[in-house]
Design a protein that fits this description.
alpha/beta; 17% strand; 9 strands; globular; single chain; TIM Barrel
Amino acid sequence: MIWLVIFLFLLLFFYLFLIFPRFSKKKELLRYQSVDYAHRGLHNEKYPENSLKAFENAIKHNYGIELDVQLTKDDVVVICHDFNLKRVCGIDKEIDTCTYEELCQYRLFNTEYTIPTLKSVLELIDHQVPIIVEIKQKSIDCKTCELTARLLDAYHDNYVVESFNPLAMHWYMKHRSHVIRGQLSSDFSKNKEVHPLMGFLFKHLCANFLSRPDFIAYDIKDAHELSFQLLKRFICSVGWTCKSEDEFKKVRNDYDIIIFEGFLPK
């Protein structure tokens, strides 16, 4: 019996070691909790997602901005959620196989707007509203982190970073420890493209030991998961993505920060 108790205690200790975050940025995070965040900018039929006009629209309404960064073939940091251009531009190409000059030929959702660079977006926002920068990283190569960090270093503050890839946040832990970082997650067991074991570990935030995040951003549809419910009691929690006023009202008090799209929160 005693050995079973010891085993369970060690198992609990190991679990807590895996999921525990960093606590030292709690006060700094308070400044980011005063606004709601427009998912990929305040986009609509006229202003496409992750476009300069969508970001300008968010600033106009005084919302924070969530945006996605990744690299082109010639190492330009651009703003786009999908790795492939098919949905956003109607071209079946991966962004990292295109130069930035080539990307400028394609239009977002058949509008006049093109995929912007992070540099141009930072110049537009210019600290008027806070930013959540999601780093899109396919593999263990953290070049996106490095080149994004150089641009954000010059921007200085009023931003945080996050990623689904714990190795991206591990890079930030090692090379930009002063920057507030967050771990994105959801119930990966629903994703057939993710190995079941990896899906289980990510779902339960068991890769936090790699990044020791300052906040957890979790899909509001899966927010009942044990590890997230445990951690949100101690650190900043971010809920993504509210897509209606009714949904917003239901979860408003469950998170420190809300990311929304498709409506204007009251």
